[in-house]
Structure formats: C-alpha cells, structure tokens
Amino acid sequence: MANHSFRHVGRRLATGHRAGRAALGLGVVAVSVTGLMAGGVTPAAATPVNCFAAPAAGIDLHHCLLTNANYAGADLAGANLAYADLTGANLSGANLSGTHFDHATLLSATLTNANLSGAVFTGATLGSASLTGATLNGAKLNGANLTAANLTNANIKKAHFDGAILSGATLSGANVLESVLNGAQLNGAQLVGTRLDNAKMRGVNLSNAALNTAHLDGAVLSNAVLTGANLTGANLYKSKLINATLTNANFTGADLARANVSGAKKSGAIWTNAVCPSENPAGPSGC
C-alpha cells in the first residue's frame, strides 16, 4: 500500500500537479512542484527518482524535496542526497557514512549523534543545523555553510573544511584533530576546549572566536586572523602563527612554547602569564 502511494505521488509530480503527500513510515513529507522549480529542479528532472522510497543504504534521493522528513536512526549509508532539500529534517542517530550531500540544503536539520564518516557536504548549506555528538571523521565540507551550526562534542578527525563558513558556530569540546580548515570563516565561533591539534588552518578567520583552553598543538595558523579572539589557557605548543594577526587577542595563561610567531601582528594582545616561545621570550610587548 505504501509503495503504491509513492508511485501515485511520483506520477502527480511528473504530470505537473501542485503537490503530493506520502507517508514514509518515518514521517510525512510534503512535496511542492513550485518549490522544486524554485530550487532549479523541474518535475521532469525529478521524475526518474523515487523521492518517497523507503530509506535504504545507497538510495538515490538527489534533488528531492524532503523538508521536515523523519529519518531518525535510518540507514542511508552511501546514499545520494545531492541537491536535496532537507530543511528541518530529523537525521539523528542515522547512518550516513559515505553519503553525498553535495549542495544539499539542511537548514536547521537535526543530525545529532549521526554517523557522517566520509560523508560529502561540498557546497552544502547547514545553517543552524544540530550535529551535536555527530561523527564526521574524514568528511568533506569544503565550501559548506555551517553558520550558527552546533557541533558540540562532535568527532571531526581528518575532515576537510577548506573555505567553509562556520561563523557563529559552536564546536566546543569537539575533536577536530588533523583536520584541514584553510581559509575557513570561524569568526565569532565557540571553540572552548576544542581539540585542533595539528590542524591546517592557513588564512582562517578566527576573529572574536572563543578558544579558551583549546588545544592547538602543532596547528598551522599562518596568515590567520585572530583579532579579538580569546585564547585564555589555550595550548599552542609548536603551533605556527607566522604572519598571523593577533591584534587585541587574549593569550592569558596560554602555552606558546616552541610556537613560531614570526611576522605576527600583536598590537594590543594580552600575554599575562603566557608561556612564550624560548626564542622569543616575553618582553614589554608580550611574546
């Protein structure tokens, strides 16, 4: 009965009817032809894909309109959700390892504790999405927009965020070891206690970010902007801050032993009780 409903809705889309509804067993999703066309997807383009198929590993749901869908706990490993609209969708606890979300829309989506290892989010929109406790090891989020997203306590080892936007995002307690964030926008982000050891963060924007007690051991922050950032108690052992902008940043109690701060702009920075590089001991202007 459910499969018949899926086919019926697919035909309505193909013949240009205004909307279809189908019960997925995991929630009810409304599909609007007008919405598809506004997103640059015509009914004809969507016809070959069954947007109402039951969730399964490897399923093809690209370009589908799946707003507010409930896929909590579902197995969608290796699925194709490129260009899909998953605004407000519930994917908490789902297996999404290796899934493609290229250029998909996941505004305010819930991916709490989801397995996103190796998932691809290139150019995707995840503004205000919740990824608390999610696993994104090896995921690709180059050029993705995660403005105000919540990644508290997420595991994000060896992930790629080149050029990603994480302005105002929360990554406190997250494990971002050895990840690549070159040119990423993290202005105003919350990174309290975040592990960024050996991360590649060339040219990253961390202005006004909260990096209290963050671990940046061996991190590469050449040409990074940390204007007004709070690094109180942060560990920057052997980090590279070459030509970085540290204007008005707070390094109170931070450990910069063996860090490289050559060429850095340090005007107005606070160095109270900071451990400075041995080759650049504390002086009147700090480390």
List keywords for this structure.
single chain; 287 residues; little secondary structure; 3 helices; elongated; disordered N terminus
Task: Write up this protein.
The structure is a single chain. The protein is low in regular secondary structure and 287 residues long. The chain has a domain at 2-46. Helices cover 8% and strands 3% of the residues. The chain contains three helices and two strands. It has helices at 2-14, 33-38, 43-46, and strands at 19-23, 28-32. The protein has a two-stranded antiparallel sheet with strand order 1-2. Strand 1 (19-23) and strand 2 form a beta hairpin. The longest helix is centred in the first third of the chain and has 13 residues, at 2-14. The protein starts with a helix and ends in a 241-residue tail after the last helix. Mean pLDDT is 86; it is low at 1-47.
Topology of this structure?
Blueprint: H1 2-14, E1 19-23, E2 28-32, H2 33-38, H3 43-46
Antiparallel strand pairs: 1-2
Rg over alpha carbons: 22 Å
Strand content: under 5%
Number of beta strands = 2
Mean pLDDT: 86
Order of helices and strands: HEEHH
Helix content: under 10%
Total of helices: 3
Question: What's the quick description here?
Answer:
The chain has 287 residues and is mostly loops.
